[in-house]
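seq as requested:
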Amino acid sequence: METLNFLRERHNLVSIRCNRLSSCAIHANSYPSMNALIRQKRIISALVLREMVTRFGREGLGFVWVIGEPLLFCFGVMLLWSLIKTPYEHGIRLAPFVMTGYMALLLFRHQISFAMGALQSNIGLLYHRQIRILHFFVARGLLEFLGATAAFVVVYVILISMGEVSPPRDWLLIIGGWLLLGWMGFGLALVFAALALRFELMERLVPVLTYALIPFSGAFAMAAWLPEPYRSLYIMVPLPHGVEMVRAGVFGEFVPTYYDPLYAFGWGAIFMICGLLLLAGAKDRALAE
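struct tokens:
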């Protein structure tokens, strides 16, 4: 009798587990988009880890160096400017002004420069059916964005501890401006990388173009410093809007800033669409070469 009861209990448990498994399978099949998102997340995460290993090795500082490189650049520029300039620039302390501008510039330039060879260095991975060309650019762009973001936070904390800058006046403006910078930087990176795949001369011109963007990036100047009508022409360039938002969040309302987040987002979307269109057929071109 005990044996019969035990067998009945085991049968009931097995039935319950089978019902749960079938319900889970039905639930998973009813949300194919969720499964696709999880698969894309895993592919990009694996590519980011691969980029870190191939660029910095397994035994080095790894992601710490992704943060350390922009840190060294930023503090180097701060030290140089402190030797040749006054402590205040148009009434703004030099250290936070350099921090907000130069970190934004590094984000732009690193996203563009490291996107240039994304396809060529990973083209062998296209053997796997689930991997697409866009995955390479997303992985590199995400790695540079995370590294620049972490470096920005570290620089900010160090300057706060040194008394060089006050805590943020508006977190939402800082976060929104920084995300806009990453959005536009990634779009520009796609455009330049796609043009370099189509025209060999672009590989040599892109470094020059990134330097040419510096005066129009808003990194070392503010829109409030320019008189009209030059100010109106200046803010027609989308790049300074993100930097102005970050500075508005850092300095507060006492420092005049000029920005339009929708305008900058729209230009970022245009960059993104143009980059994706230019990347069409890039796989065939790379394989042919």
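The longest strand covers residues 88-89.
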